[in-house]
Amino acid sequence: CGFVRGLPSGEWNPDEPVQRHLSSCLSRGPGRTLLHVFSFRKLWAFTGPGFLMSIAYLDPGNIESDLQSGAKAGFKLLWVLLGATIIGLLLQRLAARLGVVTGMHLAEVCNRQYPTVPRIILWLMVELAIIGSDMQEVIGCAIALNLLSVGRIPLWAGVLITITDTFVFLFLDKYGLRKLEAFFGFLITVMAISFGYEYVLVKPDQGELLKGMFVPYCEGCGPLQLEQAVGIVGAVIMPHNIYLHSALVKSRDVDRKNKKEVKEANKYFFIESAVALFVSFLINVFVVAVFAQAFYNKTNMEVFLCHPLSKPPECKYMFSNPPVCVQGVVLGCFFGPAALYIWAIGILAAGQSSTMTGTYSGQFVMEGFLNLRWSRFARVLLTRSIAITPTLLVAIFQDVQHLTGMNDFLNVLQSMQLPFALIPILTFTSLTSIMNDFANGLVWKISGSIVILVVCAINMYFVVVYVTSLNSVLLYVLSALLSVAYLCFVGYLVSYVFISAFTAMLCSNHQRFSLSFPAGELCTQSGHCCARSCRLFKAHFVRMSHDI
């Protein structure tokens, strides 16, 4: 039927194209295709990108946020986790639609639409987010290896091990995309089994769990719980994940000249994303529930001493290091050694899987923004080297508590980079010059704008809380200066939305101008007068942006 044909040359992995997943379409009579009929075969053909994307919802930063939420607020913030996941699904829908409709991912569209200087700044901001996420994954893997070896592998050695194992996993890419997707699916299964085992073992209160999930209220909560709620949103919605998902959907070749096929591709990618994020949500709920049942309303002394009858020998060396004890070791103390090791396996799987997706995100972002094509080996070498250096220094000269503090700083960094993914994706999916008939409607534009404003406001609050806790005048001044530059650039991105909409309105009376892929030239159709107006207006805007 020609719906899924494999990869075109130059996209994803030209040496190993995706196999033909569909051999036939459901038909009704000669020449007629039931494109509106749901097919599990077609859903399976499009399954993969959504699950790779969902791994970002299960990285060590999310797991850390989950356990802190359970320990500090019990089940009361599960509704925040549910809401953040739903918002994330809506944003991932926009990312997938951009990739399917245009055949280009978000970084490539940014390259074609933004002037040079803003484009470079945007690239640097996204790279910071990717490196910060990579550092969190290194920290999670190092702590997991430390737990599994009962302290025999020190933290600095665990950091070094994460360098080598990532290159080993990259070799899976040589065996084809579907095998790589299957490997990621295996890691998600390991996490589900590991954290699900902890959930069954702890036996949380199901009534309180359902109440916390569906009642949007936090009784008796204070600033500590509010800060944790903000942290949940910041941990769930990752900026580089928007860029990643818009690129992953390109692995399924769709005839973009056929509106029905594009529409159906959007439908199946959305269904797959919904299923994938539902699985990730369940895993996050497992972690929150375990720590809510085991640690909420318990004193530090109770957590530290555990239960003398159930304390396994593996815990002894850990009790001089409370941060590790609070996470995995105390589970072993309360529920036996198996809980400790299974917890560590889950953390290790989370770190390894999210490390790989970070590598792909970095490659797509670099290629899209800079038109610079590097091999994944070279890309991961650069990113991991930058991420490893500060993490290794802290692991050698400090302790796990400082690694935890670094993780908090990285969450703040991710929060600050969020507008640099949300604003472009809403902008480009709302422009008919890019999306044609698949541009966002008025409801999506308004609701998307509200969601982005709320998410950005929540995350900026998180940043302010973190900065004010530093208690340093010099850092206050530096933060103020950076904030001014930061807000100016965000303002520029917002102004681009209105200028692009105004330009489209000027041209709408004469022509329906659009990006011509892969050439990507604006105003290439008929209507010379309007085309000239569009080019002049765009050139004026480019000069104005350079002046800014």
Automatic annotation (TrEMBL):
InterPro entries tied to this protein: NRAMP_fam
Claim: Membrane is one of the keywords in the record: yes
GO annotations of cellular component type: late endosome membrane; lysosomal membrane; plasma membrane
Protein's membrane topology: Multi-pass membrane protein
Domain of life: Eukaryota
HAMAP family per the UniProt record, alphabetical: NRAMP
UniProt protein name: Natural resistance-associated macrophage protein 2-like
Cross-referenced NCBIfam families: nramp, Nramp_1
One of the Pfam families matching this protein, by short name: Nramp
Subcellular location: Late endosome membrane; Lysosome membrane
Transmembrane segments: 78-100, 153-172, 184-202, 229-248, 269-295, 328-350, 381-398, 418-435, 442-467, 473-506
Family label: Belongs to the NRAMP family.
GO molecular function, one term: cadmium ion transmembrane transporter activity
Keywords: Ion transport, Iron, Iron transport, Lysosome, Membrane, Transmembrane, Transmembrane helix, Transport
Coiled-coil spans in chain: none
